[in-house]
Specification:
The complex is a heterotrimer.
Chain A (H helix, E strand, L loop, with lengths): L5 H4 L1 H7 L7 H6 L1 E6 L9 H16 L3 E6 L8 H10 L2 E6 L5 H10 L4 E5 L8 E6 L1 H15 L4 E6 L4 H17 L4 E6 L6 H13 L4 E5 L4 H8 L3 E6 L10 E7 L2 H12 L7 E4 L6 E3 L8 H16 L9 E2 L5 E3 L7 H4 L9 E2 L3
Parallel strand pairs in A: 1-2, 1-3, 3-4, 4-5, 5-11, 6-7, 6-8, 7-15, 8-9, 9-10
Antiparallel strand pairs in A: 10-12, 13-14
Helix pairs in contact in A: 4-11, 5-6, 7-8, 7-12, 9-10
Chain B lengths: L1 E6 L5 H25 L4 H14 L1 H26 L7 H18 L6 H29 L3 H21 L33 H19 L1 H11 L1 H6 L4 H28 L10 H11 L4 H24 L4 H18 L1 H4 E6 L13
Antiparallel strand pairs in B: 1-2
Chain C lengths: L2 H30 L7 H19 L2 H25 L4 H20 L16 H4 L5 H4 L3 H19 L1 H11 L1 H7 L3 H27 L11 H11 L4 H23 L7 H22 L19
Helix pairs in contact in C: 1-7, 1-10, 1-11, 1-12, 2-3, 2-4, 2-10, 2-11, 3-4, 3-10, 7-8, 7-12, 8-9, 11-12, 12-13
């Protein structure tokens, strides 16, 4: 029986459960306030959980100088504007809005508060006081694809995604291309479930992919549900956003972890020493924003070596999965031999590579 | 000695105002006690949830923008609710209304101005109405229950939205994110007070309740809706057509929800993405009943709900309560208000012995 | 299509269907008693967290499932007191119950995030439950058999027992049931509690069977589908079973169509299909049977006896 204590796994949830009381007011006023806008609850295991980890790291490293506040479950509609504005009015000097759907709202509020700095995650609209940041999740997908391509017996891999947004498209293509490097005939079956979080549908979609011949399924939705299904079926999968091995000790080969802490700490420090500038950051393995969890012992030594080589390659710049030749689903050559797709092209990618079977 | 409820000859006007206010006060009192027990500053939490949105002038615009769609949708739903037509798919009609307005905006290309904006709003009304035609048709022709059809069509509307914003209407400059292009500045609703987010839709939400009130209290149609709702048999004898009532109440609800969607799109969000549907259509059902199906009641109830939403978010940042706690608090207030409704039509009597008290015949 | 393929597809359908069937069966009884409780989603979430919490505390999923039923039933009593004692509006009170259940389950759940729990063992011998073919009959969680067994039980109860007859009488004409001497409130309390318990078990199917974990709002709107199914079934238990599986098959079809790469139609079409088909199917049924089902005459109306 495996029971995880809250202390070791869900520090975020624990912090919310104990409902921290604000400290001495005069003392608090001396600290610089940093705000966070979260899409989900901090206990969602996935996206918001990872961002909240980053917030906690800021508290841990700079807690004597700054104070953080956050609002969770903020909808991506017009009502996000007052929430963001609220944080600005309360004196936050830097506000992180951590989902794509807050883009226009962030820009709107930033116009009202030229002296407050904003950081919008995964968007592309910037201003003098609005920076953007993102993570090269697809680099992690290349590692997963390498492992899956090598370990799959059927050569048919499953990919469970949320929506057709560039982040997911990149993830699918990166995974498929990496798998095909190990097994040129590898196919990737893609199901997009129109939600980031729907455990029963994620579970059913995983079963469906398995029934259609996939023996390894990777997820690009936020719950550990699919891994639990794979565990029951004695198949393999990967965690998304965080190490989810507790939910599926045998099925969980590894996971892509989103590490926002170092970036958040760096940007908060820039506020403290007045060096903050509006930037466009897209970090990956090299900067430590993308991390691969410890491998399961089911991953053979030679596969570990291959996976580590991909990570090392990204770190020293010698590896890029989007190197030509790359064909699209219809077999048209999209990237010529010797060419590498530019970051700007990756950011808007909306077509799937050869070997991806999808309904969209 | 026992407590006896005695029906009042007339619903108490005093109680209509006293009970909701008392309910809110009671919720606040309990909130202070519970929050203090949980180790949160109860007074501060309750103040931020219920009072800050009303007392801090800079929060008024947020309450207004949040309340506007709730009020407009609730007005339309109230008519159907009176006639016992249960439309629980206003969310879908809201989505289609917004999409219709967006369609006009896109078709107009770079053109803007009053005429285009008017067209967009009208398209929203038409879109929402059309989405309600299906349940109305199925209900009147085949007697298909409208709760099922309206709810199911909401899920269909979500997919229509997903298809349009991810396909034909995807912003070519939007980096392939599923979203429409932001509206041109001259296609957006005018802002009523410069420097705020209070758009024309807020004014419409303030005026419409009075329009509805006049229609409901002064017109034959209003009378018809009331009669059909309370006594369908009498209505039939009175020559009112039940089918006509179904058609009208569903179409008006759809039109209002569509209008709300168009205004929210053109006034507040200015683009449609996958996050556009956020449950206003469902919350408005509560607003409708909280406002006792009365247009002016809807106006007040819409504001009350908007206050607790806005206040709940303030409390998240000031006293760090989780979002779920704000939800529990809101539900508690709703329970109290709904529970105290009985005091409007009944008075509490303490009687010595349980002898039967004759009451007038029951009915709405 | 091989036999194995069909068996695996059937198992997916059963998993998708069981929770909504459970919740819908409960709501059927509630509505037959003349009460419309739109709080199904909230009660499912309460059942999901209470079942999960009880299992974490006791390591026993059987006690967990009792906890789920109790959690659902207890939260339904909030609704019951309001609508039965204070005649509050049922639609609004039900919606408020959904808000309440969503919030309270999230709050309780903060202490249970990250736990995993023991799951039910098989009710049948392993040789049957794990057999590659026979598992399609014997390989499910006990909750699945419970749900299936409840269909004829609820149908028989409503149709053939004296208590069921009284319950229907209360739903059809509360005033005359009252004048004959039946306790309208008593019957409705019992029905609402049953509905809450069934919704709770349905919710626990998510947190204890499909994906044994707790996450906020993990029922993802299935309570609403359960409500629609009661209408779809025309308030009949047998047709509820058919309706639930019809919907479950359509949900699975969406996933199969997408995973098979059917790109001749937009993927949104497959996602909308279960809902569209439900509307179409009910319309076709209604063309032949214009009665609109057995909607109880007092559904959603307050009980206002004159004495």
């Amino acid at each position: 029986m495996a029971i995880i204590t809250r202390r070791t796994f869900m520090q975020a949830a624990g912090a919310a459960a104990t409902l921290p009381v604000l400290g001495n007011k005069a003392f608090a006023a001396d600290k610089v306030k940093i705000g966070f806008i979260f899409l989900g609850p901090v206990g969602d295991y996935g996206w918001t959980w990872a961002h909240n980890k980053g917030r906690e790291q800021v508290e841990k490293e700079l807690g004597d100088k700054v104070e953080t506040v956050y609002v969770e479950n903020v909808q991506e509609d017009a009502s996000a504007i007052p929430v963001i504005r609220d944080l600005a009015q309360q004196g936050c000097k830097l506000i992180f809005t951590t989902s794509y759907g807050y883009m226009d709202q962030t820009i709107a509020v930033a116009k009202e508060f030229p002296n407050v700095k904003f950081e919008h995650c995964t968007g592309y609209k910037r201003a003098d006081n609005v920076a953007t940041y993102n993570s090269k999740f697809h680099e992690g997908r290349a590692v997963l694809g390498t492992i899956a391509g090598k370990m799959s017996k059927s050569g048919t891999l499953g990919y469970l995604g949320s929506y057709k947004v560039p982040e997911v498209v990149l993830g699918v293509n990166s995974f498929a291309l990496a798998a095909q490097k190990q097994n040129p005939n590898a196919k990737v079956k893609l199901v997009l479930i129109d939600s980031w979080f729907d455990p029963p549908k994620e579970a059913a979609a995983t079963e469906t992919l398995v029934n259609l011949g996939c023996d390894i399924v990777t997820t690009h939705t936020d719950s550990p549900g699919p891994l639990q299904i794979l565990e029951q079926k004695k198949l393999y999968g990967f965690g998304q956003g965080a190490d989810m091995s507790r939910f599926a000790p045998s099925a969980h080969l590894t996971a892509i972890e989103d590490i926002w802490g170092p970036y958040y700490v760096e940007r908060v420090k820039a506020i403290l020493d007045n060096s903050w500038k509006s930037t466009d950051t897209w970090d990956g393995f090299k900067e430590g924003t993308v991390k691969i969890s410890p491998y399961n012992k089911a991953v053979p030594a030679d596969v570990v070596k291959l996976a580590d080589a991909v990570q090392a390659g990204y770190k020293d710049g010698s590896y890029d999965i989007f190197k030509g030749p790359i064909y699209d689903q219809a077999g048209t050559l999209k990237v010529k031999e010797g060419e590498t797709m530019k970051l700007a092209d990756l950011a808007v990618m909306d077509w799937f590579v050869k070997g991806v079977e999808s309904a969209a | 000695m026992r407590i006896k409820l005695e029906k009042r000859p007339e619903p108490s006007t005093v109680m209509q105002f006293v009970t909701p206010v008392a309910s809110v006060l009671l919720t606040m009192l309990i909130g202070v006690i519970v929050f203090d027990a949980l180790g949160i500053k109860g007074g501060r939490a309750v103040t931020d949830i219920f009072l800050t949105p009303l007392l801090a002038t800079y929060k008024w615009q947020d309450v207004a923008v949040k309340a506007a769609p709730l009020i407009i949708i609730a007005l339309g739903l109230s008519i159907g609710n009176r006639a016992q037509i249960w439309n629980i798919g206003a969310e879908g009609q809201y989505i289609i209304g917004a999409l219709a307005a967006a369609g006009v905006g896109i078709a107009a290309g770079g053109a803007g101005g009053g005429a285009i904006i008017t067209l967009m709003i009208l398209a929203g009304i038409v879109g929402g109405t059309l989405w309600a035609v299906v349940p109305a048709f199925l209900k009147t022709r085949l007697n298909v229950n409208e709760t099922l059809t309206t709810l199911m069509l909401t899920y269909v509307a979500l997919q229509v939205l997903g298809y349009l914003v991810g396909g034909p209407w995807k912003d070519p400059n939007g980096r392939n994110f599923p979203a429409t292009a932001p509206l041109h500045a001259d296609q957006t609703l005018p802002i009523l007070f410069p420097g705020t987010t209070v758009h024309l839709g807020v004014a419409i939400a303030l005026i419409l309740p009075f329009v509805f009130w006049i229609i409901m209290s002064r017109s034959v149609f209003g009378y018809q809706i009331r009669v059909v709702g309370s006594a369908p048999d009498a209505a039939r004898h009175g020559g009112f057509d039940a089918k006509q009532t179904i058609w009208l109440s569903l179409l008006i609800a759809g039109g209002m929800a569509g209008l709300a969607g168009a205004l929210e799109f053109a006034g507040a969000l200015k683009a449609i993405n996958l996050g556009f549907p956020s449950g206003y259509g469902f919350t408005a059902i509560i607003v409708s009943f909280l406002g006792r199906l009365n247009p002016i009641g809807c106006l007040i109830a819409g504001i009350v709900l908007a206050v607790t939403y806005v206040g709940g978010q303030i409390a998240q940042t000031t006293v760090h309560i989780p979002n779920s706690t704000a939800g529990i608090f809101q539900a508690m207030m709703l329970f109290f208000i709904l529970a105290s409704d009985i005091l409007i039509r009944y008075r509490v009597r303490f009687v010595a012995s349980p002898k039967a008290t004759p009451l007038p015949a029951a009915g709405e | 299509m091989s036999t194995e393929f069909i068996i695996a597809a059937i198992i997916t359908v059963v998993g998708l269907t069981t929770p909504i069937l459970l919740a819908a069966l409960g709501e059927l009884v509630v509505e037959k008693a003349g009460v419309l409780n739109l709080g199904v989603e909230g009660m499912m979430l309460m059942g999901a967290i209470c079942g999960f919490g009880a299992t974490v505390s006791t390591f026993n999923p059987w006690i967990g499932i009792l906890g789920a039923a109790a959690g659902g039933a207890l939260s339904s009593m909030l609704f019951a007191v309001l609508v039965l004692e204070l005649n509050s509006n049922q639609v609004a009170t039900g919606l408020a119950l959904t808000i309440f259940g969503t919030g309270l389950s999230s709050l309780i759940g903060l202490s249970y995030t990250g736990f995993i729990v023991p799951v039910f063992g098989s009710v049948f011998p392993a040789s049957l439950a794990n057999d590659p073919y026979l598992k399609v009959i014997f390989g499910y969680s006990p909750i699945v058999y419970f749900a299936l067994a409840m269909v004829p039980i609820v149908g028989w109860f409503l149709k053939s027992t004296r208590s069921g007859m009284i319950l229907r009488a209360v739903g059809e004409n509360d005033l005359s049931a009252h004048s004959i001497g039946y306790s309208v409130k008593g019957v409705r309390y019992a029905a609402i509690a049953f509905g809450g318990a069934m919704a709770g078990i349905g919710g626990a199917y998510f947190s204890m069977v499909i994906t044994p974990m707790w996450a906020e709002k993990m029922t993802a709107g299935r309570g609403w589908i359960a409500l629609a199914l009661v209408v779809f079934a025309g308030w009949r238990a047998g047709r509820l079973l058919v309706g639930a599986y019809f919907f479950g098959i359509l949900m699975a079809l969406e996933l199969y169509a997408k995973a098979s790469g059917f790109s001749f139609l937009p993927s949104q079409f497959w996602a909308a299909m279960p809902y569209l088909m439900t509307v179409i199917a009910l319309s076709v049924i209604s063309m032949r049977d214009r009665s609109g089902g057995n909607a109880p005459a007092c559904l959603g109306k307050p009980f206002l006896p004159s004495t």
